[in-house]
From TrEMBL:
Entries under InterPro entries matching the protein: Alpha/beta_knot_MTases, PUA-like_sf, RsmE, RsmE_MTase_dom, RsmE_PUA-like, tRNA_m1G_MTases_N
Name of the protein in question: Ribosomal RNA small subunit methyltransferase E
UniProt keyword annotation of S-adenosyl-L-methionine present: yes
Superkingdom in the source lineage: Bacteria
Species classification: Bacteria, Bacillati, Bacillota, Bacilli, Lactobacillales
Function: Specifically methylates the N3 position of the uracil ring of uridine 1498 (m3U1498) in 16S rRNA. Acts on the fully assembled 30S ribosomal subunit.
Pfam annotation, one family: PUA_4
UniProt organism field: Eremococcus coleocola ACS-139-V-Col8
Length: 263
């Protein structure tokens, strides 16, 4: 079932609402939707509903809410995960935005780091963020997320450290940690979380670009409470590491039933 996000704060059974703009174009022009077809919509309260198309005109589509879906609590990761990534060349940040959304990230935070191969150009920042926001919205719809991840403007390391919440779980994916065989930090950190808590602390994880992280940056992050961790014995590409980390987090917190081995 196709999913779309709508602007309404909440929806009620029988309510009629309108889809327009890019979502209308995709639903009607691309997916060739017709009156009577049922789609899934998510309101701003992150609740999903089944809605049937009532009428279609040149620029808008009217739908009626038929059902409140019951799987709303099963979709999102049990904690908010921010991927803070250096700027890589080509479309690698776009790829991280898309696959990170599919993997459950809550926020994408671009970082200006010393070894970045590419640069975040201030005069193009608005368009870059607009593109990333479109990517995460489409990926959230495709993967039936209940929230659209946030995309932040690029920060330098000092400003980034200042805005990380004190209660956050702070990690650095650092390849030098992997090289010396210290692979237990991520697993230990996740295993210590109490999944019975009503609200878990957010998790913020830093990743370098193709050039990796400078040792001075790692020390600066560690001084602010970040822990360097390994993602296993193999060195991952800049665009692969964040997605690999999300998979590990999902397994530890969603699929392994508080540490019970499913294999």
């Amino acid at each position: 079932m196709q999913q779309y996000f709508v602007d309404q704060a909440t929806l009620t059974l029988g309510q009629v609402f309108t889809i327009e703009g890019d979502d209308f174009h995709h639903l009607v022009k691309v997916m060739r939707a017709k009156p009577g077809q049922v789609i899934q919509v998510v309101a701003a309260n992150q609740v999903a509903y089944a809605a049937s198309i009532q009428t279609i005109d040149k620029a808008t589509c009217q739908l009626q809410v038929d059902q409140i879906l019951q799987d709303n609590c099963l979709i999102e990761l049990p904690l908010d995960v921010t991927l803070a990534c250096g700027i890589s060349k080509n479309d690698k940040l776009d790829w991280i935005a898309q696959k990170g959304t599919e993997g459950g990230m809550a926020c994408l935070q671009p970082l200006n780091l010393k070894r970045d191969v590419a640069k975040w150009q201030a005069n193009k920042a608005a368009k870059r963020i607009e593109r990333l926001e479109k990517i995460v919205k489409e990926a959230a719809q495709q993967s039936h997320r209940r929230q659209i991840p946030q995309v932040n403007d690029c920060l330098n390391l000092i400003d980034f450290i200042r805005q990380v919440p004190n209660q956050a779980i702070k990690l650095i994916a650092f390849e030098e940690t992997a090289k010396v065989g210290h692979h237990q930090v991520l697993a230990k950190t996740l295993s210590q979380l109490d999944l019975n808590q009503e609200v878990l602390p957010p998790l913020v994880m830093v990743f370098g670009s193709e050039g990796g992280l400078d040792i001075g940056e790692v020390e600066q992050l560690q001084a602010a409470g970040f822990k360097a961790c390994s993602l296993g014995p193999r060195i991952l590409r800049a665009e692969t590491a964040p997605i690999f980390a999300l998979g590990a987090i999902s397994y530890a917190l969603e699929l392994s039933k508080n540490g019970e081995n499913l294999l």
